Amino acid sequence: MHCPFCRHPDSRVIDSRTSDDGLSIRRRRQCPECGGRFTTTETASLAVIKRSGVVEPFSRDKVISGVRKACQGRPVTEADLAVLAQRVEEAVRQTGVSQLDTNEIGLAILGPLRELDEVAFLRFASVYQAFDSLEDFETAIGELRADRAKAGAADR
């Protein structure tokens, strides 16, 4: 890390702290040459490989806009979508992989979306799981009903 004051190519880390969201590290540094102190923030980059082969940075906003279409007309708030996008990003980062296909991100959305709204889940799943027929919808609905019945039995 170059010193911003004298451009010396090295610095010493005095203190390191994880940010509140856990996604970045704040480091307090000191230059051995001029003695100047400065702060750096380090984040792990997460890249998305699109179907066209183009690589771009992960964006929560794109997750939200994709899910918003599935939630159209449903009782889902912007705050719900923001929480969902955060959960998806955290899950994707926990894989430890720095580059993911768009399809993998779409699949990572399914779990949190299922908890948020079942109809939106079915709409989104029909695209990302490539539903080809009514039987695919029936199977997905049957799984939702079975899970709901299990949850109801566990609550008793």
UniProtKB/TrEMBL annotation:
Function description: Negatively regulates transcription of bacterial ribonucleotide reductase nrd genes and operons by binding to NrdR-boxes.
Gene: nrdR
Family: Belongs to the NrdR family.
Keyword DNA-binding on entry: yes
Keywords (A to Z) from UniProt: ATP-binding, DNA-binding, Metal-binding, Nucleotide-binding, Repressor, Transcription, Transcription regulation, Zinc, Zinc-finger
Range of residues in the leader sequence: none
PROSITE patterns (UniProt xref): ATP_CONE
ZnF (unnamed) residues: 3-34
GO BP terms: negative regulation of DNA-templated transcription
HAMAP family linked: NrdR
Cofactor(s) the record lists: Zn(2+)
Organism: Microbacterium bovistercoris
Residues covered by the ATP-cone domain: 46-136
Cofactor: binding comment: Binds 1 zinc ion.
Name of the protein in its database record: Transcriptional repressor NrdR
Entry GO MF terms: ATP binding; DNA binding; zinc ion binding
